[in-house]
Amino acid sequence: MKKTDLTKGNVLKVLTALALPIMGGSLLQFAYNLVDMLWVGRLGTDAVASIGSSSFFIGLGYSINALVVIGGGIKVAHAIGKQDEQETKAYINASLALNAIIGFIYAIILIVLGKNFISFLQLGNMNVEKNAYLYLAYSAPMLFFAFFNILFTRLLGSFGNNKEAFKISAIGIMINIILDPLLIYGLKMGVLGTAVATLIANAVMFFLFLYKGKNLLFFDKKVGIAYEKIKEIIKLGFPMAFQRILFTLVNIVLARIIAVFGSEAIAAQKIGVQIEAVTYMIIGGLNGAVASFTGQNFGAKQYDRIHKGYRTALGIGGIYAFITTIVFLLIPNAIVKLFINEPSTIEIASSYLRIIALSQVFSALEMITNGLFTGIGIPKVSANISIAFTVLRIPMALMLIQIWGINGIWWSITFSSLLKGGVAYLFYKIKVQTRYQNDETNPTSI
């Protein structure tokens, strides 16, 4: 498996080469999510609500995992940019060890405390609560493998090699797509069939990563575990991980508010979020590409190249986000009807898409800018911005539902996204662009 030098060559071509495999992986994941929702949607609103409820706590696990993925990804990219092979191996070792500990502990927590987590949402539907917990318990071992798959993908991105990660992700997603109908309907496992299918797919991906990445993604016993490297990864990854954890906790609180409007509302949000993922299919690829591109170029002190890459990514992302905005505004009902038949759920999900449409460009602006902040080693900036405006969603939602009902929750999400994207860009213009035009090299002072 080869390494790629991101400090040379045409900026657009390099960014495209980095982003396309990530986008391809996101496209496959998006396709899987749509197929999965099509199958689950046939089981009815309660089934969708069960998965939607448990997905908040699965997402919380991914947020915790960001501690390693962000911190390890940044330090490995910087070490590669400096062409320090020994340091690169040390950071990879530390990342793998920390990831194993977090994955194991969180899997145990989900199994032991999963019922309490689901009860917190006060769904008011015993069947939904039962299936939500079972789905969560079956997903616990899946997360252990998934945590490593995400870390492996990020580390390969730091090496500038996203193609192999894309191939492995493609295999995993295809396995998932094939197993879903077989387990849900063939073996009559219902909601649990989706959890088992995802577990099997992630396990296969895990072993493929180990096999294909054996020259890069292995634990080097000669280097061992440097505990100071673990501390550096935690220190660097903590702000972004805390931001994502808080973001997920806010969503859990919002889910409890949404549950007041019934299981149809929970199901509608789940469907709306899956459809909205069409935006992140491309923007997520640009975020990862900008982070890897910026990381290596920052290590090599190529500041002008960093700014060019950022502007290029913004141009691509802005155009795409604008297109999704138009689609969500014009045909939300037609899209939602692909997944569910209940009129009340269709109405709520369509309203979600229309309102969220207004924030798509600003969400893209936030994600791409966060990729740059991550690459230069200041994820705390992204975290601080996100924390401030994400927490604001709760009081805004409580206030706005008095005026617009459940739509007030969707408006609170949209308003906070507008603020996050705008503030992130202003920080880049005022602080980062000016500082690195002057060739200053200490991001921690920002």
Automatic annotation (TrEMBL):
User: Looking at the record's lineage, which domain of life comes first?
Assistant: Bacteria
Q: One GO term of the cellular component aspect?
A: plasma membrane
Q: What is the membrane topology noted in the UniProt record heading this document?
A: Multi-pass membrane protein
Write out the annotated subcellular location. Answer: Cell membrane
Q: Does the keyword Membrane apply?
A: yes
One of the GO biological process terms: monoatomic ion transport
Give the UniProt keywords, A-Z. Antiport, Cell membrane, Ion transport, Membrane, Transmembrane, Transmembrane helix, Transport
* Chief localisation class: membrane
| UniProt entry tagged with the keyword Coiled coil | no
* GO terms assigned for molecular function: antiporter activity; xenobiotic transmembrane transporter activity
**Transmembrane spans:** 12-35, 55-78, 90-113, 133-153, 165-185, 191-211, 245-266, 278-300, 312-331, 351-373, 385-403, 409-428
Sequence similarity: Belongs to the multi antimicrobial extrusion (MATE) (TC 2.A.66.1) family.
Q: Which PANTHER family match?
A: FMN_FAD EXPORTER YEEO-RELATED, MULTIDRUG RESISTANCE PROTEIN NORM-RELATED
Q: What is the purpose of this protein?
A: Multidrug efflux pump.
Protein name per the record: Probable multidrug resistance protein NorM
Q: Recall the taxonomic lineage recorded for the source organism.
A: Bacteria, Bacillati, Bacillota, Clostridia, Lachnospirales
